[in-house]
Every structure is written in C-alpha cells, then in structure tokens.
Design brief:
- The complex is a heterodimer of chains A (about 475) and B (about 425).
- In chain A, about 55% of the residues lie in helices and about 5% in strands.
- With about 475 residues, chain A is mainly alpha-helical.
- Among the domains of chain A are: about 1-45 and about 310-470, no CATH class; about 115-225, no CATH class.
- In chain A, the strands form 4 sheets. Chain A has a 3-stranded antiparallel β-sheet, with no helix packed on it. In chain A, strands 4-5 form a two-stranded antiparallel sheet. In chain A, strands 6-9 form a two-stranded antiparallel ribbon.
- In chain A, a hairpin with a 5-residue loop joins strand 4 (about 200) and strand 5 (about 210).
- Chain B is of the alpha/beta class and about 425 residues long.
- In chain B, strands 6-5-7-1-8-11-4-12 form an 8-stranded mixed β-sheet.
- At the A-B interface, helix 15, helix 16, helix 17, helix 20 and helix 21 of A face helix 4, strand 6, helix 6 and helix 7 of B.
Amino acid sequence: MKKVLIFTLCLLFTTLQVVAKERCSDEVFLRRTYLTVTGALPTPQECVKFLDSTSPNKREVLVNRLLNSELGLKYMQMRWGDILRIKSEFPSNLWPNGVQAYNRWVYEQLLNNVPYDQMVRKLLLSEGSNFRAPAVNFYRGFQKRSPENVYANINLLFLGDRNCTDNGHLCFSQVKFKSTKEWKEEIIYLDIHQKLPTQKIVLKDGTVLTPKLDNDWREEYVSWLTSPSNRRFAEVMVNRLWFWVFGKGIVHEPDDWNENNKPSDPALLKELTDYFIKNKFDIRKMMKRILLSDEFNSKAAPEGFYVPQRLPAEVIVDALASTTGKWSTYSSRVPEPFTFYPPRTRSTHLGDATVSSSELELFGKVSRDVSLESQRNNAITSRQLLYLMNSSALERRIRKSDTLKQIYLDNGDLPSVANAITLLVLSRRATPEEISLYEEYQKQDNLPLMELAFDIMWMQLNSNEFLYNH
Amino acid sequence: MKTRYFSLLILLFAICFGANAQRAKSVILVYLDGGPAQTDTFDPKPNAGRNYYGNLKDVCKTNVEGIEIGQKLPLLATMADKYSLIRSMTHGSNAHETGHYAMITGDTSRGAVVYPSFGAVISYMLRDTYKGVLPCYISLTSANSRFNEGGFLGNTYKSFDTGGRPEWAEFEVEGVVNKFVDKERMNKRMALLNKFEGENSMDKKLIDSLRASNMEFIWGESREAFNLKDEPDSVKQRYGKNRLGQSCLVARKLVEAGVPFVNVRTTGWDTHKKHFQRMNTMLPQLDKALSALIADLDARGLLENTIVVCGGEFGRTPKVLWEAPWNGGRAHYGKTFSYLVAGGGFLGGRVVGKTDKTGENVVERAVCPCDLIGTIYLLMGIDPYGTLPHVSEGDLPILPSLLEKKSDGLLYEIIDIKKPDYEK
C-alpha cells in the first residue's frame, strides 16, 4: 500500500516537473522576451522573421541580440533609475542637468557591461560636481542627506535590508555638500581631515572597520560590501534580476531580506548566486542565464512556471503608441532649463520621474519617491479599463491611426487585415477561429472593412492578452 | 490585527465623546496653480503705494464691516459673510514643487517620506464607506503632477482626472464621454471581446467585474453629473464661460451627486511678467466662478456640508518687480499668503491672521499648511492626529507637521467646533 502511494507520488511529481518544463510556443517566447528585456513590442516584421525562422538556436540568438540592443539597455536603465530614484523634482530634487548626467552614467555602465561590484564601487566612492562626476547624484537625491539616511538607502539597495541597526553610517560622515555659482551645480566632497569616530564601527556580520585619518572612510565599507565573500550582496542582485523578469523574487519582496522571509527555492538561489559570483558579477550573462532557463521558457501558469504579469505603466503607454502610431509628446517646462523630448520618445526612455502624463499616471508610473520595488503597482484597476474601453482620446488615436491605415491599404480582405492587426498588437498571427469570429461580427451590421478594423484593434487593445505579459 | 481593534476602540471613543463630529461631506478645492498674489486678492494693501499695490488703486469693501478684499473681486465682496479669509498662511518655500507639496499634503516636516495629497487621504479614509459610482476624488481637469499625489498610499487613491474641456460644447470626460461610440456599438464590441478572450484568460473574473462596473459608470445616470448641455445658459454665464467657471459648475454638480472630493485646478497664476495685465482677465474670472459656486451651493443647501477652499502653492512678492526683465511682475512668495475657506463647518465673515502694512510679514497668528488641512480633516470627521499605514515604516502620523507645533494649530477660531481641552 505504502509503496503504491510512493509510486503514485513519484509519478505525480515527475509529471508536474515535465509540465513545468514544457516549453512555451515561439509566439509567446518572442513577445515575452521582448517585453521583459526591452519593454517594447516586437514589430510585425520581426514577428514574422522570428516565427518563420527554422534555426535551432533562435531563442538564444534573440536573447543575445535584445540584451545588447539599445532598447534593452535603455529599459534596464529605467529599472536602475527607479531604484536610484532619478528625478528632477520633489523628493529627489536632482534637477534636469543632474538627471541627464546621472542617466548617461547609468547607461554607460550598462553599455560597457561594467561588473555589478565595480558599478556599485564607482557609485558609492564618487566625489565631485553633480554635472561632471554624475555618480555623486547618488548622495544628493534625499530630502534628508544625513549619513544615517544615506546608509539606510545603501542597505536597502544592495543588501535588501530595511532595518539596518549597525553603525556603518559613520563611514559616510565625511560626505559634504557645497553649492557653486553655477545654477543647481553642487560639489560633493570629502572632509578627510575629520576626526576619527570615537565609536567602534561594527557591521552586522561582526566585521570591525577601522577607518584611518586623512583617508576616504567609505572605502573600507565598500570593500566589505562588494567582496565576493559577502554573499548577500550577490544574492540580492541575482534575486532582483529574477524579480525584474518574473515579477516575483525567489525572496519576495526582493528588498526585504530578513530571517522570517525565506527564499521559496533556496537551491535555485544558491545555484544562480554561484553563477553570478563565478562570472565576476556579469549582469548581462546573468540575465542571459535567466532568460534561457526552463522557468522563463515554460508555458504560462497554471500549466507552466511563468506567471502572467500586467504590463508596467510605461510599457502599456508605449504599446498604445506603437500600435496606433500616435505617440505622446513629453516635455518638462519646469524646472529650468526646460526639457523637450524628441517626437516618438518612448516613455520608458524619459529617465526623469518628474516628466509624466495623465496616461502614465493612470497606469501607475513609478514616482521614484522610495527605492522599494513595491512602489511599482501593476494591479489592474477599473479606471485603467475604463480608459481602454471608452476613452475618446484613445478612440481618436485608433481612428486616425497611421499604422491601421497602412494595414488597410496593404491588405484587401478581412483575413489579411485581421492577421496584420493581430501581428501588430498581439505579436502573433490570427487563428482561423478568430477570423470566423470577425467575419460573423462583420455580418451583423454589414460593417465596412475600415470600421471593422477599428473594432478589432479596440478589442485587441482591451484584451488581457494585450495587457499582460504571459 | 491588534491595531485594527485599537483604532476601532478609538473610533468608538470618538463617536461617544463627539470628538470627530463630522460637519462636511465634501470638499471642493479651487487650486490656483502657479501662486496667486495675495495682495491683489484677499489681503489688499492700497496704502503701500505703487511699488506694492501696482496700478490698482482701490479695494472692495465687503458686506462684512472691516473686511476688505482686492479691487478686482467685487462679486466676492458681496458675500463675505459666507466665507473666511486666512491672511497669514506660511511655509517659507519659494519653489513650486515644494510649495505644491506643502499645500496639497500639509507636510512641511522635510522627512524622508512622501505624503499623499489631502484628497488622496480623504479617499483612503472613505474607502469602505463611499459607495458611489462616480470616483471618490475627481480632478477637473487634471491633478497636479509635480510630485506623486498618491504619496505612500500609492496609486489607488489618486484622483480621477477628467481630461477634456468643460467649457467646450462637449465635455469629453476621459473614459466616460465618447462621441464616437454609442451604447449599441459598445455592447457589440464587448460581446466580441468576450468571445475572443474565452473562459480561461488571465484574471478573467476580476477584469469582467471591473468592466461591468465601468459599463454602469459609462451608461448609467451618474454621468449626468458631467453633462453641462442641459444647464441653463444663465447659470453658465453666472459661473463664467471659461475653463475655471465651467469647472466650478461641474464641481457643484459632482458634489450634488455625492462626490466627496473635487479638485478644480486652474493654471496660469505664475505671473512673473505682465502680472497686472493678466490679473485684469484672470481675477474677474476667479471672482465670477468662486462667487457663483459659493452662492449656488448656498442656495441649494449644500454649502452647509461642503467645504470650499481656494488658494495656490504660495503667494507672490508684495513688492512689484518693475525692473527689466520682469517689467511689472511678481515673483514667488512663500513667507506669507492668503487662503479663502467657506462652508462645511467653516464660519463666514472672519479673518484669521494679519500681515504688516506691505503684506510681506505675518504679524499675527501664523497658519501652517497642516493647520488648514488638519482643520479640513476634522470637519470631514477624520482625526487630524490619526495615522496612515506606510508599507515599510509602519503607521505614520497623518500630519507630521501638526505634531511639530510650529504655529497655533488647527483653525478653531473659524469653525463651529469648540477647541477641546487637550488642544489648549
């Protein structure tokens, strides 16, 4: 009896594993990877090319290409901008010049694939003008610029610790701020002649730091922080990348590591962390490892591992623009100097949380008030659906859509028009069942083809297949 | 769980002792974005000379003895018994974003936390009790986006931005009024969508129920609150046929329909240049809109439980900048400025605070943003000393600045609630 039970359980277990590893279709993989890595939909041409390709390693080729593409780097830059709180105005108050320099700095780190430990080193050991040494903006973006507050943020960002109680903040007590005559320029410098702290600096793992007179005390702390032997440092980033991809960390919330918050899969976390450290904190390699994992290549839940996520605000807004061909224009008239973004700028590329629109606010653009990942709220709300269902602004964009007009001109009949819209909006071809559904719909009122195209596009933009990364 | 019982206990306590006797059901914030000049509106200084009072010469005597307001506000002057003026508002910041943040959240503590706007706080507090189809907190036509309006409460409690133009023939409320699609077409589209999605799509149940409630919002009676087509022309004229005027008219209709918080946001008050020329058109518009709103609410018996509050993120320099490049402009001034309050438990015909003869300094009873917002909370039945939940910091005081006691506190002198002993 017992044996039978064990046998059944084993059988069940293996089937479950098989199910978890059952691969998603190419259509799903393409859209999922595009949205995850670039925050953009693939163009219809790219869809056709990928779907028709017979290359056995086309998934890997796609992942490589996107991770190295400008779209991919800029989307990663947005993720970093969220947690570094890059914003012109309240509460970061970095101002436009500082914001631009800081974004450029982040972009360059990502472009050159600077190892994570070195990037953090450069960030935390920065000094100089906020315009010329952009990493110093890290120290400027706080309403409270006390060493305690800066240190609390470092613990949150790099160690996932929300309640740090050790006195490592003393290592940051030399950081000083000096204004210049230049509008909103500020010098971050070190008062290295400052008297040594009388308190002994003991970090949470018991490490004792001994800062020396006339030296940068931050150095001691940062060397401890970024060392491969400080496993937590690597774990937090690996888990954050996992969270960025799946919307749920192995430790979740990804910035709340504590004894009561255990990893859901310790073996997986260990395996990934080992890989990250072995590869010298190479973020791009780590991303590739995750994107080619069985988990990312699995079918959507409940059949597979991948849990569908509502698209982030910026991604929805950009997708509404790219599908209709009607882009919003963004500008920031205040604070000075005024910033005007070129036409067709993606909202994922704005780089400044001060620049916004009603549409972005509606879908929950991150305000960058805090460094918590949870500030991004991707829950679907009735107002968001209301906007998609019945906004005259969106209806106008559909009716005046250049992309739709082109589809109409290029394709003469219902099946090819429907197919082209589906490629544009949902990144796949229309199924025969869907075509007959549309035919039936058209017959009801004898709708002209163009009117039908409006309704199909409206319907697809409202579908949760569009709203979710699945 | 414990805190829930605790707050329940406090609530019971409050009900028993009448500490939170609710006077107001709704708030209309007429927000003059950019910063209006206090000396041209509610704190005129005609004797300060041309360098201060500019090209204006006179004031309007109001129907309350001893209260005078700016020369360009004759209609508001006829009803000073309906409202009170705060002439000693102060937060000291001359930067727009910090000024907005102070006036819209009441937080001047400069802490590490971003507070929600008071509209968001009110809609959070009413999350279980407000059952209307219309959103709890509506902005005409959009909320201020200079900081995160939802603060640490998050997106859920942000305002519903109507978009559109109430002064146009068709007020296209975003998501509600859509002239391209009639009900029949919408129903057909929804049916198509339903067939397309099938039974097993993501969050199907949730999304279907949200869509159903939206259909009720779009096609039900409540959308009539946005409809100005059937309003008599005389009423529209009275409010003024411009964006501010018609927004105030919509605000009245929304409050009538039970909406707890309406934010009428009007821009253009940041008059560094051409100040007086611009005031010549803007002040009469404000005068018409605000006086019509207060009178209309009063005539309909709504003023009693509707708070009307009007002001901006700061005031403007009492001293005129005659020199180039300003050529008769006024700059930002956070040291002292004015607010108007009416209804919902606020008494009329009173003035709080006093400024010196040029209007540059407070000489009596400084009022901090938290004093005003705390008083509004009190009238709305919300404990101004209560707390709000923060995702990682635990419960935080609803108005941290109120606890700093930098001023004389809540505005008991102009409300019909007596100052309790613990406040004395």
